[in-house]
Specification:
Layout (H helix, E strand, L loop, with lengths): L5 E5 L17 E5 L1 H15 L5 E6 L5 H6 L5 E6 H11 L3 E9 L3 E3 L14 E5 L2 H13 L4 E2 L13 E3 L5 E5 L13 E4 L1 H6 L4 H4 L2 E2 L9 E6 L6 H10 L2 H11 L4 E2 L4
Parallel strand pairs: 1-3, 2-3, 2-4, 7-10, 7-11
Antiparallel strand pairs: 4-13, 5-13, 5-14, 6-11, 6-12, 8-9
Protein name: Lipoprotein
InterPro entries: Lipoprotein_NlpA, TAT_signal
Membrane topology: Lipid-anchor
Amino acid sequence: MPVSTRRVFLSGALSLSMGSARAAPAPLRVVASSLPHAEILDFVAGQFGPELPLKIIEISGDLRPNALLRDGDADANFFQHVPFLRSEEASMGMRFAVVAAVHIEPLGLYSRRAKSLADVPAGGIVSLSNSVSNTSRGLLLLQANGLIRLRSTEPGVDLTLDDVVENPRKFRFVEIAPPQLPRSLDDVALAVINGNYALEGGLDPARDALALERAEGNPYANVLVTTEGLAKDPRVLRLAALLTSAEVAAFIRTRYRGSVIPVRPI
């Protein structure tokens, strides 16, 4: 008899008490941010739940999904791209396993004050992520749209504000936590916002962004991650196959209309 799917909500204000005892068959415990990751997992659970029971652990607050995975409180997570994962691995002193590349959430430039990038006022404040990999990604998007020039764009090198060598419109930059970027829109001339946080903030990236990243050749695909010890677990491999299936790709295209873009398996 299949185990029913459950969705659990955790926030940084709560302590973890996940318990180590597992019934057989054990549901796969997957940590995910709410949009679009938990929604995609909900679709998988609805379509394929009897063959792959899932416990979807939706997170908020200051919980670190990779730490939950390291500590055995989850079997996999689905919220991040590889450059972010690599920076986490460096700080945590361990390696994880990437088992599937699922979708791109195009980074976008947004404004409540300007209807186009040409209308963004000189001297205005530009908010962008304070996480290392996403700061670099945001700076590259600003350069791609002719707003700044960077010292270097060498692959694999994390860029900082110190790498801005030309800023002809004299923008002032502020780095803030990624979940707060949509809220910054009322106070800044331009915000560089991750796709998932744009969706959570009620924005439609395909409609509302003044500019979006290109999907082609984009290194920031969101990935399913597990520990090296679980990389060949049949449940993990089955979830990886489902997340990169034609059915899930069709759901992503229909549900998010270009705001989230499916990619081929890695």
